[in-house]
Amino acid sequence: MERGETKAGGRWLFGAELDPVSTLCYGRYAFRKGADRRGHDQPNREEGPLVHEMAIAQSVLDIVLDECRRHGIATVERIAVQVGALAAVVPDALTFCFQVVAQGTPAEKAVLDIETVPVVMRCPLCGELFEMEDRLDVCPQCGPVVSGLSLISGREMTVMSIEGRGEDDGA
Amino acid sequence: MTEIKVPVVRNILEVNERLARENRKLFDDKKILVLNLMSSPGAGKTSVLERTAEALRGRYTMAVIEGDIQSSYDAERLQRKGVQAVQINTDGACHLDGNMIRTALENLDLDPVDVLVIENVGNLVCPAEFNLGEHEKVMILSVAEGDDKPLKYPLMFQISSVLLVNKTDLLPYVDCDLNAIHERARQLNPTQKIFDISCRTGEGLEAWTAWLEARIREHKGLS
Question: Per the database record, which ranges form the CobW/HypB/UreG nucleotide-binding domain (chain B) (predicted)?
Answer without folding.
Answer: 34-195
